[in-house]
Amino acid sequence: MLRIGRMVLHLLAGMATCAIVFPFIGTERRNGHIRRWSRQLLAICNVAVQVAPGSAAALEHGMVVCNHISWLDIFVINALYPCRFVAKAEIRAWPLAGWLVAQAGTVFIARGNKRELRNIFKGLVQVLQEGQRVAFFPEGTTAAQGTLLPFHANLFEAAVDGKVMVQPFALSYVDAAGQPHPSVDFIGDMTFAQSVVNILDGKPVRAHLALLEAIPGEGAHRRDLAEAAHRAIGKALDIVPEAETLQEQSA
């Protein structure tokens, strides 16, 4: 109960910062707040973040794509490399945390809304051209550790039009023995609240983040970018991908 109370207070403090401070500061200072707040949240959740040895240098700006396991993923990445995230609209409904990630600049996509997807795509290209770092999870949903779902290729088009690099991140969560952590998976009918309780009541978590070599987006095709990112992440996680690695969403 103590850790749950600490987490609620931390979420409320973050909401206050977003409401009172963020409207009056620039992107660099805002990213500093996001980085510190995310690190503190992970500490409350007993999650330690480790960058894999031999990782590539992080892009200062461009597109970041990562496999998706848990609601923790956003905060693990933001604790090191704050990004403008693109996420499914359901995240906006998460208690407290949904409002926070929205204020941190997350862009939400509602499935099946073609007009919204086109408008978001234009906005992403503009943000990329302004020199910011944009991140999304091309699987479109969370997957159990040890699996890698097909990648949706559409949003990779923003990297092509924005003429920026695409950097794959490979993320995993392990326990003290180096095995996939049983408390982290956020799949099936599990609610956000249930997942939070599982993590807070569980044993310490180590988040391993591998930064892979960036892929040029200029002049590429979105399907090729998605396939290359899928292969790179699968190799880094030692996952043999299924035959179907891509999904196209209507836009």
Brief rundown of the structure:
By secondary structure, the chain is an alpha/beta fold.
Please give a handful of descriptors for the protein shown.
8 helices; eight-stranded mixed β-sheet; 40% helix; 251 residues; alpha/beta; 18% strand
What does this molecule look like?
By secondary structure, this protein is an alpha/beta fold. The protein has one domain. Helices cover 40% and strands 18% of the residues. The protein is built from eight helices and ten strands. It has helices at 2-20, 27-44, 72-80, 97-103, 114-129, 157-162, 192-201, 222-236; strands at residues 47-51, 62-66, 84-88, 107-109, 133-136, 151-152, 165-174, 205-211, 215-216, 246-247. Strands 1, 2, 3, 4, 5, 7, 8 and 9 form an eight-stranded mixed beta sheet that branches. It has a two-stranded parallel sheet with strand order 6-10. Helix 1 (2-20) packs antiparallel against helix 2, helix 1 (2-20) runs parallel beside helix 4 (97-103) and helix 2 (27-44) packs across helix 3. The chain is globular, with a radius of gyration of 17 Å. The protein starts with a helix and ends with a strand.
